[in-house]
Amino acid sequence: MASTICVVGTSYVGLSLAVLLARQHDVVAYDIDASRVELIRAGRSPIHDPDIEEHLAGGGLRLTATTDKEAAYRDAEFVVVATPTNYDERTNYFDTSTVEQVVADVRRLAPDATAVVKSTVPVGFTAGLRERLGTDRVVFSPEFLREGRALHDNLHPSRIVVGDRGPQGAAFARLLADAALDDDVPVLLTDSTEAEAIKLFANTYLAMRVAYFNELDTYAATHGLDTRQIIDGVGLDPRIGMHYNNPSFGYGGYCLPKDTKQLLANYAAVPQTLISAIVDANTTRKDFIASEVLARGPRVVGIHRLVMKSGSDNFRSSSVQGVMKRIKAKGVEVIVHEPELDAPTFFGSPVVSLEELKARSDVIVANRLVPELHDVEERVYTRDLFGND
């Protein structure tokens, strides 16, 4: 039987879920940003995701979009919360204010609806929110999506995790499983706090793997060794594998930096050394990359793309920004080429065309060596070995 679902927030997580579920159910996408709502109504995506763009343009979805909160919540059986939870460096805690506000509004405007939190939250958040609001109609369900591939990852999920072992958790898990194109997707119903821990520990493991191969690369570069040979030999161990092993400037994006810091904060009263090391490793790697670039003695350094992943239009917390700041701190001029950036400058650095970047830069810093840089490859600094993310 079809359900009525409201999705709050129309970025990667929210919009991909709205499109996924609107293939079979009536879905209302609610956002306070009127421009995003108008784009969705016009069949256009406010984010870059080829599958989302195709589905919105193709029609046939049972999807409406609105800025009217009361209308959005009124008839919903589930309200999916996909609002931002940025990490606050002052409090060592995610800013969960938008999530708490949405859930409070749902309790007031649609008390029979179940609020499903998809935003990443600290371990123990959902249980505390349930207690404060005096309700069990709040469920946490982590997402495991890649930017630019969010709908694809919802259509072909690696697993479905819902932090509620009762009927409402099972019902929401069925919605996601039925909407997937793959059969026999693993479904795990857990308690809410365990589900929150799954999200943070999974992302911290991925960050650890990035940091590991980056530090392997740092060692090899420092000693004049061939990083590719070492990684090939290490990765042939089936327990390690040849995936997610391409050296980079550090882990970045919206999730990994903040999720690792939040997990570390959750360890406040628990003995550990590894989680701290994962967080610290990212800083160490950026220091090394900047020193390598500066060792070439450039007068002008060009940054080729702030976006660090292919197919993404997002450069929030990208690791190259940390490298860029370190280079500028030494008095070296930095220019930036980023087609996704509609501004004349970025943190005081000129935003230039690809042609100007090539003409002016003594060193071009590129997280990934792409074909458009092959004609200036002798001036490109990259740690890219495999040509993938």
From TrEMBL:
Ligand binding (substrate): 144-147, 199, 244-248, 252, 308-309, 389
Keywords, comma-separated and alphabetical: NAD, Oxidoreductase
The protein's Enzyme Commission number: 1.1.1.22
A molecular function (GO) term: NAD binding
Entries under SMART domains matching the protein: UDPG_MGDP_dh_C
GO biological process: polysaccharide biosynthetic process; UDP-glucuronate biosynthetic process
Pathway assigned to this chain's UniProt record: Nucleotide-sugar biosynthesis; UDP-alpha-D-glucuronate biosynthesis; UDP-alpha-D-glucuronate from UDP-alpha-D-glucose: step 1/1
Cited InterPro entries: 6-PGluconate_DH-like_C_sf, 6PGD_dom2, NAD(P)-bd_dom_sf, UDP-Glc/GDP-Man, UDP-Glc/GDP-Man_DH_C, UDP-Glc/GDP-Man_DH_C_sf, UDP-Glc/GDP-Man_DH_dimer, UDP-Glc/GDP-Man_DH_N
Keyword Oxidoreductase: yes
Catalytic reactions of this protein: UDP-alpha-D-glucose + 2 NAD(+) + H2O = UDP-alpha-D-glucuronate + 2 NADH + 3 H(+)
Family: Belongs to the UDP-glucose/GDP-mannose dehydrogenase family.
Listed name of the protein: UDP-glucose 6-dehydrogenase
